[in-house]
Amino acid sequence: MNAFDLISVFLYVQFLVLFILSLKCKPPEGKHAKLLVKMAWFLIAGTVILLIQSLFRLF
């Protein structure tokens, strides 16, 4: 894993934490809720892809 991978993983984790905190603070409504859910799925998918790539580079 190089520095770029670590920064990418850190940013995705940070976005996920911020997203979870924003959901706990107040429930989103309407169009914003759908947008936030889509954003969360993209972030989760990106994080999984980055972690898989990092694992393949280790071996």
Write the layout of secondary structure elements.
Blueprint (H helix, E strand, L loop, with lengths): L2 H23 L5 H28 L1
Largest sheet: none
Order of helices and strands: HH
Number of domains: 1
Number of strands: 0
Q: Which stretches are poorly predicted, pLDDT < 50 over at least 5 residues? A: none
The total count of helices amounts to: 2
Provide mean pLDDT, rounded: 74
State the helical fraction: over 70%
Q: Given the helix and strand composition, which structural class is it? A: mainly alpha
Q: What would you report as the Rg, rounded to the nearest angstrom?
A: 14 Å
Strand fraction equals under 5%
**N-to-C terminal Cα separation, in Å?**
11 Å
Bulk shape = elongated
Structural features, described:
With 59 residues, the protein is mainly α. It has one domain (3-58). The chain contains 2 helices and no strands. α1 runs antiparallel to α2. The N and C termini lie close together (11 Å). The relative contact order is 0.17. The model has no long low-confidence stretch (mean pLDDT 74).
Q: What's this entry about, in short?
A:
With 59 residues, this protein is mostly helical. It has helices spanning 3-25, 31-58.
Structure keywords:
2 helices, elongated, 0% strand, single chain
